[in-house]
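Subject: Re: docking follow-up (fe (ii) ion)

Dear J.,

Thanks for your patience while I sorted out the input files. As discussed at Tuesday's group meeting, I've set up the holo structure prediction with fe (ii) ion included as the bound ligand rather than trying to dock it afterwards. The sequence and the ligand SMILES I used are pasted below, so you can double-check that they match what you have on your end before we go further.
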Amino acid sequence: MIFNKEINCSASVAFWNYWDQEHLEHIHDGYEKFQIIYEDKDLIFSVREVILPLIRLKITTPIFMKQLDKNNLIAFGIIFGVLSETKVFINDIGHDKCSIKVIYKFYLNGWKKLLRPLLKYLTKKWFQKVWEEDFVLKTRRQKVLKYNFKDFVGLPKKINDRINNDEYILKLPLARPKNSLAPLIKIKREDIEFKN
Ligand SMILES: [Fe+2]
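The structure tokens for the complex came back this morning:
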């Protein structure tokens, strides 16, 4: 399944939205008990409880997400025991505008092929819902970055300083608030030691 969209924000801002884990529970109805198991510079492994749209069924799914390069992100999850793959391509198409292409793929075999129509239906509903909920986050961030907004600092006090035409560059991992709603619960990269 392929979805194509355009939005008035840069590709970096659109990708920021994927990496901003804190908004999930606040903005998206249906995300619960979100926990990050492992996080590295450009990848995250998390477990989340998701309430599926319409049928309101609660499922627990692991999500692996990695930024492959400036314009590509890939994610994997498991729903009803079916492996799902999500590829996200985002490209700038002019000044503070980008195109977003999302390709969903479900690896179905045996009896699981029966789930195809349901998964297709749910994916379409899910994508549209999440798109609408995220829309304002992306356009608003683009706007405040132009006003020289800095994360964890805010807007400059002086009105004259509220201008910034620099290109926003996504830096991963994103800085996290101390009391994040998306806590890293298990291991951080620096916790790993390889011993003989
Ligand atoms: Fe979102």
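A couple of observations from a first look. Residues 17, 23, 27-28, 130, 134 surround fe (ii) ion (CB under 6 Å). The chain is about 25% helix and 35% strand.

Let me know if you'd like me to rerun anything.

Best regards,
T.
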